[in-house]
Amino acid sequence: MSLLSVRDLTVKFAMRDGNVTALNQVSFDLARGERLGIVGESGAGKSITGFSLMNLLSSPGYIADGTIQFQGQDIVNLPDAKMRNIRGNRMAMIFQDPMVTLNPVLTIGQQMVETLKAHRRLSKAEAEQIAIMKLRQVYIPSPEERLMQYPHELSGGMRQRIVIAIVLLLDPELIIADEPTTALDVTIQADIMELLLELCQSAKVGLILITHDLGVVSQMTDRTLVMYAGRIIEAGSTREIINDPQHPYTQGLINALPQQTAPGQRLKQIPGSMPSLTAVPKGCPFEPRCAFATDVCRSTPPEIVRHAHVEVACHEVNRLHAPQQEGQSA
């Protein structure tokens, strides 16, 4: 049984002029201990997916259809009290900005102790000992002193490590990390990612890493979902997607990486921009930006099908890759 199984997840936002679809029939599975990357540009639906899994959508957003099975239990319509027992306890989320996650008027110790006592029957002393142990686990120096400090007294990298320590307090089976290193220096980013990887491998924790950085995905994840305009347009092993992308959008993302351009040359980019949720094209959502679009792309949304070693939603995938496949067979 999968740790997490998502089927046909559809999220809508109720607007004055009618509902708009933010996620359109998203489906995927996550095994225990597996690391899954979700990539795409801003507006692709990555963060909405993470918030939906945690049942943290705020009005006017709501789950319109589909199921989210966590260890065989559908959590979409779970009562708030039961969902609170899962959220933070068995499923946890790391947000982009630690200063949004941490309460500025409480010490680190107060926040960690409150988190533990909300889910466990512990004395304050017992909770503090567990907090110190978790701070050591994320390589926080002098953890006893950190318990007495406020978030503003710590560096950005230290705060993000504190957030990870809080996430680990209750030994969750699934961690959703939403751009966890966005505001950090490059060296600190590498440290945080190495820490997450180490924790997932040692404790068999499932990880969903939401990011726009394909370089991070290539180093951190086993499988990758590429999202565009609220849909999964390519899915498969990270190695296959990075080395042999099938969808024109995925190819564009990889070609836009700085290392794909010679020094002194302009970086490559995908022309155009992500469509607004209120103006998603009738056919393939990527059609207005795609150099290979045909009439069928303009009129009919593509189904996701198996091609090569991945799943891809593209009407023209066979034509685009036919010459390469013929050359390989020859």
Overview of the molecule:
The protein has 330 residues and is α/β, with parallel strands linked by helices. The protein has a domain at 101-169. Helices cover 36% and strands 23% of the residues. It has 13 helices and twelve strands. Strands 6-7-8-3-9-10-12-11 form an eight-stranded mixed sheet, with helices on both faces. A four-stranded antiparallel sheet has the order 2-1-4-5, covered by helices on one side. α4 (108-119) crosses α5 and α7 (156-168) packs parallel to α8 (186-203). It is globular, with a radius of gyration of 21 Å. The model is unreliable at 324-330 (pLDDT under 50).
In short:
The protein contains 13 helices and twelve strands. With 330 residues, the chain is an alpha/beta fold. It has an eight-stranded mixed sheet with strand order 6-7-8-3-9-10-12-11, sandwiched between helices.
